[in-house]
Amino acid sequence: xxxxxxxxxxxxxxxxxxxxxxxxxxxxxxxxxxxxxxxxxxxxxxxxxxxxxxxxxxxxxxxxxxxxxxxxxxxxxxxxxxxxxxxxxxxxxxxxxxxxxxxxxxxxxxxxxxxxxxxxxxxxxxxxxxxxxxxxxxxxxxxxxxxxxxxxxxxxxxxxxxxxxxxxxxxxxxxxxxxxxxxxxxxxxxxxxxxxxxxxxxxxxxxxxxxxxxxxxxxxxxxxxxxxxxxxxxxxxxxxxxxxxxxxxxxxxxxxxxxxxxxxxxxxxxxxxxxxxxx
Length: 279
What we know:
By secondary structure, the chain is mainly beta. It has two helices and 17 strands. The protein has helices at residues 208-213, 274-278; strands at residues 3-5, 17-19, 34-36, 61-63, 76-82, 91-96, 101-105, 115-116, 129-131, 140-142, 144-145, 152-154, 162-168, 171-175, 181-185, 189-192, 268-270. The strands form five sheets. A seven-stranded antiparallel sheet has the order 9-16-10-13-14-15-17, with no helix packed on it. Strands 7-6-5-8 form a four-stranded antiparallel sheet, with no helix packed on it. Strands 1-2 form a two-stranded antiparallel ribbon. β5 and β6 form a beta hairpin. The chain is globular.
């Protein structure tokens, strides 16, 4: 996919850069593979705002994507590559030999008409899924499971991937984009290749209204508020806050470690923070 820029006939088009999606399928998604998507506006089940500055945005239908790839040894053909408003990556509609249709994350270099398959021992080519223990060392993979049967959780966003760098007993050593090296059970599934739409990182939104279409409302800084609204607020004239950065509720932020899941620390061989700590 290439990037698309515009001849600036309006101010917002001067810096607008978007992904050229002209080669994608232009019709509606398969209705049986979609469901309604409720817009929460950043509110939890009690109706309280837990994520600020969310709301509005275009109405979306959720595409049901198969992250598990448990239909083993049944070849499928790629029918089309589609845009998905719910994620940065593109999705591919595949049709299995038994007639079943499904959406999967589209990897790079996957084209319409290609054959893909999921199984224990299949060819190492983009779109094929297999257990990590059966994938050769050095292979680029995405949509990696962390728990057996749960479905892919790692490397699902546009352009992301991980690399298999070694084995340790029943586990496989995976190096993530963040440089973290992690142990993952060898029976967990992964898909060969990197996720599609790598140019997504080069997109320039161009105007505030385009963010509103995405459901993102204006974000105002704490230092621009009054003291009653934020700990950074107040002061005569402009100030830098006068204290270490905190959330509106006074909890440390911007650099404060937030990881609490100590039960999985043993699976992290090399932390993504290791390089920072050496300096």
